[in-house]
Design goal:
The protein has one domain: minor pseudopilin epsh fold. Helices cover about 25% and strands about 25% of the residues. The chain is built from one helix and eight strands, in the order H-E-E-E-E-E-E-E-E. It has one helix at about 25-75; strands spanning about 80-85, 100-105, 120-125, 130-135, 140-145, 155-160, 165-170, 175-180. The strands form two sheets. A four-stranded antiparallel sheet has the order 3-2-1-5, with helices on one face. The chain has a four-stranded antiparallel sheet with strand order 4-6-7-8, covered by helices on one side. The longest helix is centred in the N-terminal third of the chain and has 52 residues, at about 25-75. The protein is elongated.
């Protein structure tokens, strides 16, 4: 078979050198540098957001437990105590609220649950090795009367994160609960007893 000569009417087009579909080393290094810079900027912001979220969650859980105890005291017309616990169904004798929170009816006023049916709640506190919850020195428990009042002095719980006070829960004598965020970050042990 004979070969046909190329026609003059259809010129042959020569394509320039085609670019490969891969990524060059320089492009890869630049992309990694951009990712590293963005990560370095985002990590501190994420850590601050995580800290604030844990503290806010703890403040909310404490206020909801206190509100629940107050409602139970008013509804059942019996004194209700909320105290720190180790999870064993008894109140702790110190001011560390970082383990469990125990809520129970206390008709005899001994500030300890007498029977299993006296318990309303025995819930674990939020778990974090960097989080501690401490109450005021002279007030380790909160006792709501059937009127909803909390007799005695104000109770202040300090929510500490990394050894610094990050939030406060304050219960006044009328039984009302409020939260506060200190403007300056004091060490957890040097915080004021009440606001």
């Amino acid at each position: 078979m004979a070969r046909m000569p190329a026609s003059v009417d259809h010129p042959v087009t020569v394509l320039p050198f085609a670019r490969s579909q891969g990524v060059t080393l320089i492009e890869m290094v630049v992309a990694m540098a951009v990712v590293a810079i963005l990560t370095a900027l985002a990590v501190p912001s994420f850590q601050a957001l995580s800290k604030r979220s844990r503290v806010d969650n703890t403040l909310h859980l404490l206020t909801s437990h206190f509100a629940s105890a107050r409602i139970a005291a008013i509804t059942h017309n019996v004194p209700v105590v909320i105290c720190p616990s180790r999870g064993d169904g008894a109140c702790r004798q110190d001011s560390d609220w970082s383990d469990h929170w125990l809520t129970f009816r206390d008709p005899d006023g001994n500030r300890q649950p007498d029977e299993a049916n006296d318990l309303y709640r025995n819930d674990p506190a939020p778990r974090s090795p960097r989080l501690r919850i401490l109450s005021t020195g002279g007030r380790r428990q909160l006792r709501y009367l059937p009127t909803g009042y909390s007799s005695g002095s104000n109770l202040t719980l300090r929510v500490c994160y990394d050894g610094k006070v990050s939030g406060l829960v304050v219960v006044n004598n009328a039984g009302r609960v409020r939260t506060a965020r200190p403007s300056d970050s004091k060490p957890c042990g040097d915080a004021p007893d009440s606001l």
